[in-house]
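Appendix B, example 12.
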Amino acid sequence: SSEGCTNEVQKGGVCIRHGAEVSRKKCSAEGCANNAVNGGVCTLHGAKKRICSSEGCTNNAQTGGVCKRHGAKRRNCSA
């Protein structure tokens, strides 16, 4: 049963387990199989990571420029 699912929403208001299909682009650097993060490349080939804007925090930023610990909103699966 999908009632009460607490997985994070991916696409269409549902999580991957309940039907969201997420396709990831691969890094455009020759011979690299990593997922592209920004500008068609992975972090090893030049994509910049967004860091949380909260003072002293080094976590990756999610929505609103902050990490989950500092208030990034997380939407749960609606299935």
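Residues 11 and 58 are 27 Å apart (CA to CA). The chain has no helices and no strands.
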